[in-house]
Amino acid sequence: MTGFDWLFFAEITLAGLGSGALLALTALAFVLIYKATRVVNLAIGEMLMVGAYLFFSFTAGWQVHWAVAIGLALAGGGVLGAVLERTIMRPMLGESPISTFMITIGLGSVLAGLVEIVWGADPARLPEFMGNAPVFIGEAYVSRKIAIGFAAAALVIIAFVVAFRFWRGGVALRATASDQGAAYSCGIDVPRVFSYAWIVAGMAAAGAGVLVGAVGGISPTMGIFGLSALVVVIFGGLDSVAGALVGGLVVGLIEAWAGTYLGGEYKMVATFGLLLSVLLVRPYGLFGTHEIERL
Amino acid sequence: MAGRNVGAGNGQGAPVLEIDRLTLQFGGLKVLNDVSLAVPQGAVTTIIGPNGAGKTSLFNCISGFYRPKAGRVTFEGRDITAAPPPARAKMGLARTFQNISLFRGMTVLDNIKLGRHVHMTSGLLDGLLYWGRAEREEGAIRAEIEEKVIDFLEINHIRNRPVAALPYGLRKRVEMARALAMQPRVLMLDEPVAGMNREETEDMARFILDVKEEWGVTILMVEHDMGLVMDISDHVVVLNFGQVIAAGRPAEVQAHPEVIKAYLGAGDIGQLRARIAGEPAA
Amino acid sequence: MRIGALKDSYAADQALFDTRVQRVWLAAGALLLVALPFVASDYWLFLACLVGIHVISTTGLNILTGYTGLVSLGQAAFMGVGAYTVGYCQIRFGTPFLLNLIAAGLVTAALGVLVGVPSLRVKGLYLAIATIAASFILHFVFQNWTAVTGGTRGLSIPPARMFGHDLARPQQLYWVILPFTLLAVLGAANLFRTRWGRAFIAVRDRDISAEVLGIPLLKTKLMSFALSSFYAGIAGGLWAYFFRVVTPESFPFVYSIFFLAAVIVGGMGTILGGILGAVFMTLVPEVLKLVVGWLTPVLPNAVALLAPVRTIVFGLLIIGFLIFEPHGLAEVWRRIRRFFHLWPFRT
Fold first, then answer.
1. What is the DSSP code (8-state) at residue A2?
2. B82 plus B198 within the same structural domain
3. Which residues of C touch B104 (CB under 8 A)?
4. Any CB–CB contact under 8 A between B97 and chain A?
5. Interface size, chain A vs chain B, as Cβ–Cβ contacts under 8 Å
6. N or C of chain A: less Cβ packing under 10 Å?
7. For C305, which of A40, A109, A117 is closest by C-beta distance?
8. d(CA B33, CA B21)
């Protein structure tokens, strides 16, 4: 009997980290909206899907150069975020969190249905734009797409974290997240912060969608990626950026290991097993704030 | 001298609620620092103190929403420090909130009926069936509530109104009614007359005294309205910066130098009195 | 509340149908329900049975979401559990259908408790995500636990038998579905004038106050979820006897969205809302099928669009009603009644 195939394990692990970075990016989009507006956006997976399909339309349909198409897809994601915030979320300001939550569920349905109507129900592949030369880390083979995806996601995430910390807008965002009333009285334009949060989140989701689509192809059911992202934010804490990062990598690894060693169908089962464990042990997530309610 | 039950008045017995060296901390902030006090049975005890002194936090510890870092809460001889809020309700501890916490989706009557929840025995199945046990129980508590609580607090005319439609003063009264429906041993009132005018305050004061005398309930209040506090309290405890700085009968506390310093600031009291009286500064 | 509708006893005040007018309408409704199988065409009877099943499931979800404030996206998956339980019992043991239905309800309720224990300890959001997870895991189980569920082929269920007769046609199943629907609705209506029903609403409105009144939060939420799951199990069991074939694709995720939409459209937190929502939502796919039928000459691909259009319509109904008519059709109905009651006056 041969020893444990460490090389293979390393390759699977690297692949898991790669997809984990994409999960982290998606989770970041979710956290952004939650932090700024306290809205739990269950439609994040569908927003990701729209981004992927927009890219598909621009490259495969209109024959636009892939770099331009990425820009357009991101812009489209941003526009989608802005439109959603203005038309659907703004009227719900002040309503109960349950109602807002249910609206995002309806939203996910609408987006999924629209994608299927416009682009059809069959899965498709995105045009190759990342090249095929394999990437080697040491002896381990990593798919080029996954490596690029990881790098791209990492860059975006780092940009985010820096912006949050240092840029005025990031500070405004954190202020609004803490206390809307107080932020208003400090002169922060709260509705505009809401808009920006949704726009940036839309762009992040669209970007993640392009990368996810590039790796695994696109289909009207790819919104399920959002589900894994939800597990990530529960694991990491609904309002924690650090949690999204760590959680993304953890869930990515678990899915990769389970998918390979147990079988493809067990991927989701493993993810949800993790969800259950988190709910039992640390329901507010690794880094989430346990809100102390003022009685 | 902090804490112990100083001086007893009429109808006051052994302490029904004892707080023993309670410390509550949020991160680095010590909200309650080594607080001890005893609430005599059958009397009205009021906790006063400047804003931020920790009064509501103390209430929340007694209710069971905050876990103290150190210290004990004893209710009728039993240590309830670790007991969850529903368990404390079962033992006879009722409480109202500073911000009204009625159930907006229900009528006044349904809100009050919820006060009887701990004393009822119908289960889920009984409820689904209704005819039989649940119906009998509903009829019984309805009669009880009407007699003992609704008539008592004079809210007959609004019993079927949704609480969301009521004015503030009536909502506070309904909240008291709901707490009374629990038939508690100790009733904790968090600012019962906040935002009320003179008349409403007098009505509420009358109700509180009636509850104490007719029902034999021990009252523990947090209040800012000093008129009310001085008039109806048997025992007053003063909190400042999370510590008990005085306790005793209203008149004693009023003259206590620490209390005066907390409310008026340091400085020569004699000077202040003179200036108020219009005499030239000494 | 009608002015002058005076009651002279507490019991009368608490009755479900307290005015004479209501009782007359009730009698008329009962007459209609009894006469239906004899006058309606097969198609309408089929729809009536389906409406009955949906009313049970929607009322169950309403108890959880409308009255207790907890969102669940697993109602369809739970119905699947009920359907498979009925199928398994009927095929394996041949036990009487009533027993199978009760078993379906109990098994689903137990599953509800299992899902609820970890997820109800914190905020309501976690239950929603846990039910999504449960939907996926259950779908996985339906597909792979071939010994019990028949795998992707599913189960072919023999008809229910009563007094030696097979209950295979809608005309016959109607007489089984109708009483269950009535009992389900009546049970829910009763529940909310009693102790635990009020406790559910209290947990929804202000859980801190509820705790202070002695209501244990986790236990109460679990009860609500278990009851709602029981309803789902019964509805699923009836579904199995009605359609006679259960496969893993019988209860897709979009079906759970259907039920959530039904609760929202009908009116959350009202018994009438559960009924109106179920009726409305059952008719929506039928109307869509009609529209697609008309459009097919113009748009040859229209049929392929049916599924996604349905999904979009469900989502739009949820969004639309939450924004514009958050109290649902029950509120619309109240307004209509008021209009006629006061006509020709306005207020």
1. P
2. yes
3. 205-206
4. yes
5. 6
6. N
7. A117
8. 8
CA angle A104, A109, A115 (to 5 degrees): 120
Q: Is B144 on the interface with C (CB under 8 A)?
A: no
What is the total count of domains within chain A?
A: 1
Residue A292 inside a domain? The answer is no
Which of B183, B208, B239 marks a domain boundary? B183
- CA-nearest residue of chain A to B59? A295
Name the one residue in this structure whose structure tokens are 């909310």: C192
One digit per residue, the tens of pLDDT, for chain B of length 282 reads: 333 433 334 445 689 999 999 999 988 888 999 999 999 999 999 999 988 888 999 999 999 999 999 999 999 999 999 999 999 999 999 999 988 899 998 999 999 999 999 999 999 999 999 999 999 999 999 999 998 999 999 999 999 999 999 999 899 999 999 999 999 999 999 999 988 999 999 999 999 999 999 999 999 999 989 899 999 999 999 999 999 999 999 999 988 888 888 777 766 666 677 777 776 654
Strands (DSSP E) contained in B96-196 are 186-190
Residues B168 and B190 in one domain: no
Q: Is residue A237 part of a domain?
A: yes
**Residues B45 and B175 occupy one common structural domain:** no
By residue range, what is the domain housing residue B64? 1-86+185-282
* CB distance B12 to B71 below 8 Å: no
Q: Which residues of A touch C145 (CB under 8 A)?
A: none
Instruction: Give the residue on A whose Cα is nearest the Cα of C313.
Output: A110
- Answer yes or no: do B108 and B153 share one domain: yes
How many structural domains compose chain B? Answer: 2
Delimit the domains of chain C by residue range. Answer: 39-270
Q: Helix and strand tally (H, E) in chain C?
A: 15, 4
Does one domain contain both B61 and B190? yes
Task: Report residue B73: phi and psi, to 5°.
Answer: -120, 125
Chain C CA closest to residue A235: C126
Residue length of chain C:
347
Reported ipTM: the value is 0.89
Chain C residue numbers with beta carbons less than 8 Å from the beta carbon of A283 are: 118, 121-122, 126
Cα C189 off chain centre by: 14
CA-nearest of A251, A245, A257 to A275 is A251
Chains in contact with B, where contact means 3 or more Cβ–Cβ distances below 8 Å, are A, C
On the 0-12 / 13-18 / 19+ scale of CB atoms within 10 A, B38 is buried
- Which CATH number belongs to the domain containing residue B98 in this structure? 3.40.50.300
Residues in chain B: 282
Is residue A294 in a domain?
A: no
Q: Which helix (H) or strand (E) holds C336?
A: helix C328-342
For residue A44, what is the domain's CATH number? 1.10.3470
Q: By C-alpha distance, which of C325, C254, C289 is closest to C317?
A: C325
Same domain, B156 and B112: yes
Residue A156 domain-assigned? yes
